[in-house]
């Protein structure tokens, strides 16, 4: 367990567990105050990870927004932005995505052996493609990130990635924001997918903190106890 970063999984969902609806526009689940809180959490991490599905669907920049936070990082000898990380099994990533075109920090793409070589050629140096084995192993990804100096990793989705990390027992902290409404659409994406989770009734997570952010509730869980 010492050969991997501290993993902080961050997500906002509706009361009934949805992270989006089925409309073309992205569903806004957080408030301005919560977006600023998330930005502060990002600023305390070394790398940020999303799945390739999130890169395709949301085209996120994954940058620290606050100039003051960027400057504070720089004053400590850190890069202004986090290392960006994504996982892909198919290699279906657009080189024009903002994941690759924004920010000066490294962009790491972990892919299975059968996908890595072709993807590296297609990206043409916009990001470093790392062979994560066949099949792709999450432990390999985390060990490689640790070797690169990543001590604190923020994971921001989507549902397949949440499920992968949680079912693998590789989440040290879960920051879950609950929005004050329901979506109720079975075709919309949820916080997690089906899986066998170690966070079971026999092994519940520990609720470390509850914070009110307007009408939002931030629940901070420790799935496996404290880990520095």
Automatic annotation (TrEMBL):
<dbReference type="Pfam" id="PF01872">
    <property type="entry name" value="RibD_C"/>
</dbReference>
<dbReference type="InterPro" id="IPR024072">
    <property type="entry name" value="DHFR-like_dom_sf"/>
</dbReference>
<dbReference type="InterPro" id="IPR002734">
    <property type="entry name" value="RibDG_C"/>
</dbReference>
<keyword id="KW-0560">Oxidoreductase</keyword>
<comment type="pathway">
    <text>Cofactor biosynthesis; riboflavin biosynthesis.</text>
</comment>
<dbReference type="InterPro" id="IPR050765">
    <property type="entry name" value="Riboflavin_Biosynth_HTPR"/>
</dbReference>
<protein>
    <submittedName>
        <fullName>Dihydrofolate reductase family protein</fullName>
    </submittedName>
</protein>
<keyword id="KW-0521">NADP</keyword>
<feature type="domain" description="Bacterial bifunctional deaminase-reductase C-terminal">
    <location>
        <begin position="5"/>
        <end position="215"/>
    </location>
</feature>
């Amino acid at each position: 367990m010492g050969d991997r970063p501290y993993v902080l999984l961050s997500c906002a969902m509706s009361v009934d567990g949805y992270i989006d609806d089925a409309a073309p526009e992205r569903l806004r689940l957080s408030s301005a105050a919560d977006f600023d809180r998330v930005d502060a959490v990002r600023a305390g991490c070394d790398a940020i990870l999303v799945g390739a599905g999130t890169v395709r669907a949301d085209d996120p920049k994954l940058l620290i927004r606050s100039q003051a936070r960027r400057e504070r990082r720089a004053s400590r000898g850190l890069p202004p932005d986090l290392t960006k990380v994504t996982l892909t099994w198919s290699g279906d990533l657009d080189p024009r995505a903002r994941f690759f075109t924004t920010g000066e920090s490294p962009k790491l793409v972990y892919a299975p052996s059968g996908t890595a070589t072709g993807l590296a050629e297609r990206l043409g140096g916009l990001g470093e493609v790392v062979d994560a084995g066949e099949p792709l192993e999450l432990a390999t990804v985390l060990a490689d990130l640790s070797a690169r100096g990543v001590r604190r990793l923020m994971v921001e989705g989507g549902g397949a990635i949440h499920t992968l990390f949680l079912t693998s027992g590789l989440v040290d902290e879960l920051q879950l924001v609950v929005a004050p409404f329901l979506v109720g659409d079975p075709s919309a994406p949820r916080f997690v997918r089906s899986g066998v989770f170690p966070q079971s009734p026999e092994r519940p997570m520990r609720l470390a903190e509850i914070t009110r952010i307007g009408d939002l509730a931030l629940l901070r869980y420790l799935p496996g106890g404290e880990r520095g």
